[in-house]
Amino acid sequence: MDAGSVVALVTTCYGIGVKIIDICSTWKHADSEVKKRVLIVEDCWNRTRLQVDFVMRIKSIMDEEHCRVMDGLLKQLALILSLATTRLEGVIQKSSSGRSNRFRIGFKVKKAAWVWEKEALDFIISELEDWKRRFDPSWFILMKIASPLLDKELALAKAKEGELRGPATAAKTPFALAAGLRDVLSPSNERARNITLSEVKMEWKNIPFSNAKAGRRQNSDSRWYIVDTIEFGQATRVRDVASDVRVLASKLSQADPLAFGLLNCKGVVPVTRRDDSFVSPPQFGSELTSLVSLPRARSPSIDHPRYSHLQIFFRVPHGMEALKSLREMLLKPNEHMSLSWKMLMARELGKAVNYVHTFAFVHKNIRPESVLCFEDPRGVNSHAFLVGFDAFRATDAGTVMGGDMTWDRNVYRHPDRQGMDPSEKYTMQHDIYSLGVCLLEIGLWESFVEYTNEAEFHGPPQAKFGKLYYDFKNWSSRKGERTSFLGMALQLKGFLVEQARTRLSPRMGDKYAQIVVSCLTCLDDENEDFGLGVESDGFIASQFIERILKTLHNISL
């Protein structure tokens, strides 16, 4: 990224931005709907300008890849601003033409102008917010740079942000959110937060086809929480698991759900072993039960041997209702789901996977049972959040090389990570592979895992082989090859890649199909997006943002 060309590009953006704001300021006399949109445009531009200015101030500490990505994003911003200006000038010309026509009635001309102005402003708001969604993943990664200059400039930008008027476009302002992220990513701070909660009486509500539960305190407020359970197990080291959970909860206490696709963490409850009067949360079939509380303890230690497992409590975003797991949605007929909704879920899931890695973790359990879908009461906005952190670990920590033979989990695992004795250490690419399987499932709208009927089975629904399994068995038998477990795992991967290449394009388009293929082959040497022999987390994260997230956002419907 040539310094001179970048300065010129930023100067161009600033100049066009000022012109847009000047035009918008002349419309503040219009009706209330236009005025409201003008304020939103001004707010979007002011925060965008601050973020671009911040990037320019720290460019000396950015590596070559960061600079290349930011250069591309700035060019996109300049194009968006140019199109916005053209749109606004077109509205001005139409309004002037209408007013000069003596046969037009004045009120009708004014009403038409308001409609044109609202449409133009909606276009600008949509384009700026869409650009910000593409910009944020690369921008938040900058918070990982260890430099006093970044700390200094972040503090200055956060102060300037506080001087801005008008509502922020996210639950938190960008620099406040970035400062919180940087704080929890610091090795000196990540263990400092006290996130331990005490056991209390709880109501539990089942979330069909998800291992996460909804819970709230009995005889208290009506606020519900989403609860993940982390089992210690006999083979795990309690202290290590507790330490990882403490760090995860501390980091996710700074998560903005709408920005990151990860729920905000309230804290962790260590649960006493069953022989110490613990009653476990319900499983799939149960609707509502309660947990007998223990006397309140002051700052319980979550790695004490008396505890059998930990519960991570996540806050439900304000106004979110109609909670369902992605698996429950996938079990519905395809005709109930629009193409727009499928693309939204794909983007939301990709965003969540990216920020798990930004927070320096690998998830290890990405599948539809770990994705919760929310809608607001009006049903106009949908959001997906990634939960199911029962197998996560820090990216720089050791990994448990154990596994299992369950089909419903192995279908989402790379061949290197299937079976009782996985052959490779878990990496970010393994999460990307799991994402690819989920995106294939969403695109085809076929549930790769099915469940027993509760009434017929006389118990909680249990995972069973679905249509995909039998399609794969028939496909494999036509190959006529007898092979080992690893060989079958590799065949399953080949089958999924073939499904993506042959069946996705007619349903979701060529770009979507290529994204899925790239995710499924991200560990292959011939993969052009990830297979360059570079295995650093920074390179993989950058490639994921550029090749997967950006392409998902660029798909037009």
Please indicate the percent range of residues in DSSP E strands (runs of 2 or more): 5-15%
Low-confidence stretches: 276-298
Alpha plus pi helix count: 17
Query: Which sheet architecture does the biggest sheet show?
Result: 6 strands, antiparallel
Outline the secondary-structure elements.
Blueprint: H1 3-25, H2 32-57, H3 64-100, H4 106-141, H5 148-163, H6 174-185, E1 202-206, E2 213-217, E3 225-231, H7 238-252, H8 257-260, E4 265-272, E5 288-291, E6 307-315, E7 321-325, H9 326-330, H10 339-358, E8 361-362, E9 371-375, E10 382-386, E11 393-394, H11 407-410, H12 428-444, E12 449-451, H13 454-457, E13 463-465, H14 467-479, H15 485-508, H16 510-520, H17 537-554
Antiparallel strand pairs: 1-2, 1-5, 2-3, 3-6, 4-6, 7-9, 8-11, 9-10, 12-13
Helix pairs in contact: 1-2, 1-3, 2-4, 2-5, 3-4, 4-17, 5-6, 10-12, 10-17, 12-15, 12-16, 15-16, 16-17
Report on the architecture of this protein.
The two termini are 32 Å apart. The strands form four sheets. Strands 4-6-3-2-1-5 form a six-stranded antiparallel β-sheet, covered by helices on one side. Strands 7-9-10 form a three-stranded antiparallel β-sheet. Strands 8-11 form a two-stranded antiparallel ribbon. The protein has 17 helices and 13 strands. The model is unreliable at 276-298 (pLDDT under 50). It has a domain at 3-185. A hairpin with a 6-residue loop joins β9 (371-375) and β10. With 557 residues, the protein is α+β, with helices and mostly antiparallel strands. α12 packs across α15. 51% of the residues lie in helices and 11% in strands.
